Amino acid sequence: MEIGGASQAKSNRWVVDPRAWPLVRSAQRNPISSIHALRIAYVATTRLEALLKASPSNFLGIVHYDRSPGEPSGLGACPVVCLDLPQFTGPPLAEVWTSTLPVTYHQAEGIHCAMNDEVLFGALQLEERPDTLLDILTHTAYRRLLVQARALGYPHLLRVWNYFPHINRESDGLERYQRFCAGRHQALAEDLSDFPRTLPAGTAVGTMSGSLKIHFLAARQPGTHVENPRQVSAYEYPRVYGPRSPSFARATLRPSISGSHLLIAGTASVVGHVSQHIGEPHKQTLEILHNLNALITQTEQRHGITCGQWYGQALFKIYIRHPEHFTTVRGILKEQLPSHIQVLYLQGEMCRSELLLEIEGILGQEKTIDVSQTVSPTRLRLQQLTTSQHAQPDSYRIVASPDSVPHSL
What we know:
- It is a single chain.
- The protein has helices spanning 48-54, 134-151, 176-191, 281-302, 326-336, and strands spanning 2-3, 13-16, 29-31, 39-44, 58-64, 80-82, 93-99, 104-108, 111-115, 119-126, 156-165, 170-171, 174-175, 201-207, 212-219, 224-226, 251-254, 259-267, 270-271, 274-275, 314-320, 342-347, 357-366, 368-370, 381-384, 396-399.
- By secondary structure, it is α+β, with helices and mostly antiparallel strands.
- It has one domain.
- The strands form seven sheets. It has a seven-stranded mixed sheet with strand order 1-22-21-23-18-17-16, with helices on one face. The protein has a six-stranded mixed sheet with strand order 8-9-10-15-11-14, with helices on one face.
- It starts with a strand and ends in a 10-residue tail after the last strand.
């Protein structure tokens, strides 16, 4: 399902390493439980008010990709994030986080939180002032959110989204992204036990305007933080990228009684620690897909996830620097991504000026009962790829027909 484009994608293709999803099965499945700590979906903003009245789910948070979206009534204390990241075509959409567990709300120190028995969704924003550098502001923001999350009983940071304008502009001798990284690094190094191995997955994207805005997911129980074998861990980057390394994991695997979520960090055309395919959006897109494939395979092989069983939610968010590259990027992803995946295209700026796009995602694996004892695997057709100079020689395109569809809220 394409979101932000003119039509729905019809392809069921995903570019993967052959070991990544070898057992995409066409089974009849019944959920073990209808209880979910969290679900995420992209929803037309025109539907929000009706959804608030009709949905049995409780709202954890709403993210608008518009500087002035006209918030629906009835949200109460639910955290709402408004970002100036223009959406490429399509009706205006919001990212909606819900839960079937009871949700409570809390506000303190400028942080709005929604909580259930497993997770906390929180949001805060701090205005920049001429006399305060971004690293100081970022340190303050992170210290506040870490203190609040721990005080409320959610000490484990799983995923953080960071947004601020002019991400590549110089500020007092450093790029603004480098200043952001310095402030984040200081706060997390001061607070997290077993730093840097407990770092959460992260995104940092430049907006068209606005303040420093952060929203995050924390939990009562720790997640498993995952690194990508094709990339140097961001927290081990050499100092050429700034005085303090970017402090995030490539992904976090969140376990739950109702299944798992793989929270994938912003992923760019970087191999090792070096940006690839400068000035070539087509090749950068393909390189990102190879990075995502490697990350998913790593998660499955090392952390006990059954290969090919990502039956639950699947959402991707694509940030594109230049509007003229949208058609190219969308064309590749329409061809390569399964049609049931929700994809949202936004205009934003990447952390390095030479990077033209970035992709993040959330994959859900629900615990299910297989009521068919003898099921044949879906037929797979493998076609060797030669799209990346860094790809493994045994990289293939798997053409399958996953039967999962996005769950309704």
